[in-house]
Write a structure and sequence with these properties.
InterPro entries: DUF7745 (IPR056647). By secondary structure, the chain is mostly helical. The chain is 61% helix and 8% strand. The chain has 2 domains: 11-95, no CATH class; 97-135, no CATH class. The protein contains 7 helices and 3 strands; from the N terminus they run ααββααβααα.
Length: 135
């Protein structure tokens, strides 16, 4: 079993977004988009939730999710990818994100190498912190 394998009873992307944002199923369903091979939610929808949500804890959760999706694991410009909600869900359960960060980094480096062009987009700072803390 690989480091990045998903558990069998993992909540759906919609359920995770509902849990993180505290928004209704209808709100979440109306905002999920398909980008390439994955589902995501536009940043502007999350921004609206950050600015208007009555629960300050949920505002912070949505803001943190946005940072992970737009800065740390950018996949679709201006959108937060489904994989980011998986990571955020694991963080909420106190599971270390280090294996996920390493796998995503490796996957992105491989994709760049296979294409023979492009550049690595990921969080080198987190990778560097991991290396310094383990070696």
């Amino acid at each position: 079993m690989g480091v990045y394998s998903r558990a069998v009873n993992v909540p759906t992307f919609s359920k995770k977004l509902m849990s993180i944002t505290g928004m209704s199923e209808q709100w979440v369903a109306a905002r999920i988009k398909q980008k390439g091979d994955s589902k995501c939610v536009p940043w502007r929808s999350l921004k609206d939730a950050i600015l208007t949500h009555p629960d300050m804890r949920k505002r912070l959760d949505v803001f943190a999710l946005s940072i992970y999706g737009l800065v740390v694991f950018l996949k679709a410009l201006g959108h937060v990818d489904e994989a980011v909600t998986d990571l955020f869900d694991r963080l909420d359960k106190k599971v270390t994100p280090i294996p996920t960060i390493l796998v995503e980094t490796f996957r992105l480096l491989n994709a760049c190498q296979k294409m023979g062009e492009g550049r690595f987009i990921g969080c080198l700072q987190l990778l560097l912190v991991w290396f310094h803390s383990h070696f």
